[in-house]
Amino acid sequence: MSISTSTQYQYILVSQEGRVGTVQLNRPDALNALSPELMQELVEALEAFDADDAIGCMVLTGGEKVFAAGADIKKMASASAMDMLLVDQLARWDRIRKLHKPVVAAINGYALGGGCELAMMCDMIIAGETAKFGQPEIGIGVIPGAGGTQRLTRAVGKAKAMELILTGRQFSAQEALEMGLINKVVPAELTIEEAKNLAKAIAEKPAIAVRLGKEAILKAFDTTIEGGLDYERKLFYLLFASADQKEGMQAFMEKRPPVWTHS
Ligand code: DAK
Predict the structure, then answer these.
(1) Which residues line ligand 1 (CB under 6 A)?
(2) Tens-digit pLDDT profile for residues 162-196
(3) The dihedral sign for the CA sequence 34, 92, 199, 149
């Protein structure tokens, strides 16, 4: 197992263990508030892992007490609508949505506002038992602007999303689990380890099938069942052009473990 830490970034830490790439938000003085500068680094690091054949799955985490307290309120406070429009922040967030490899969020402490939205942009969420989620924007005179009204609603349903977004109240990891927003609650000291174990299990699977599996699942959110089934079928056929499909099925018949080449 190799662990390497890059020093090229100011607001994040980046490391790699086997086929798992980890990005840690690291702006503790502002509770990991998601400034444009931090988001730029985050997107660059995730895209670098996404383009690296040696990586099969990513983990995104924050600090022990705070995953992220949201977008930087101090930088937004006096902005005009046109400032917000022209800064085109959404383009950066959109790049995270377009990652091909799965991302597991490992959440300890606060995941509020944009922090909660960032967690929900990930494909799976492991949370420590002291994690606190929330979309508190209503309390500062706005609404979620990075997907919260859409992703929370799709994950937990209309009634719960209405309650959580219109009151802005925080909710626990246990409540998030019961609502179907996250995968698992673990003791806080095990959050990153559990997330890495999940990422490792995925990273060991054939990369092209993982990629197309993620793509097909995400399709379920923006298409009809008919369109989604059609899309899935085409991706399924496409996998018969991969070496790993041949290897996987051959290995099954020969009763041996498959040797993936991720091709
Ligand atoms: N931005 C800037 N600074 C923040 C911050 C934030 N979101 N959250 C905390 N801080 C700063 C505090 O101002 C304080 O700074 P100093 O006073 O020391 O200078 C320091 O971090 C410590 O915070 P507290 O003293 O408040 O610490 P506590 O432990 O008492 O409270 C807290 C922790 C996380 C519960 C509290 O800080 C809090 O409620 N923070 C604000 C949470 C919030 O309202 N978040 C939503 C922000 S709006 C979009 C993309 C993203 C977004 C929208 C659009 N597009 C792509 C279009 C996202 C919007 C948001 O997230």
Answers:
(1) 30-31, 33, 69-74, 89-90, 93, 110, 112-114, 136-137, 140, 145-146
(2) 999 999 999 999 999 999 999 999 999 999 999 99
(3) positive
Q: Which residue has tokens 């109240």?
A: 169
Nearest CA to ligand 1 atom 11: 30
Reported pTM: 0.95
What are the DSSP E strand ranges found in the chain? 4-6, 12-17, 20-25, 57-61, 66-68, 103-107, 110-112, 124-128, 132-134, 171-172, 184-186
**Range(s) within the chain of domains with CATH label 1.10.12.10:** 207-254
- Phi then psi dihedrals of residue 20, to 5 deg: -110, 125
Structure tokens at 127: 């949370």
Give the span between the Cα atoms of 238 and 212, in whole angstroms.
Answer: 9
Task: Report which secondary-structure segment, H or E, holds 153.
Answer: helix 148-156
In this structure, whether the domain defined by 207-254 belongs to CATH 1.10.357.20 is answered with: no
CATH architecture, range 3-203: Alpha-Beta Complex (3.90)
Nearest residue (by CA) to ligand 1, atom 56, is: 90
Residue to probe by mutation, ligand 1, list 11, 25, 29, 31, most atoms within 8 Å of CB: 31
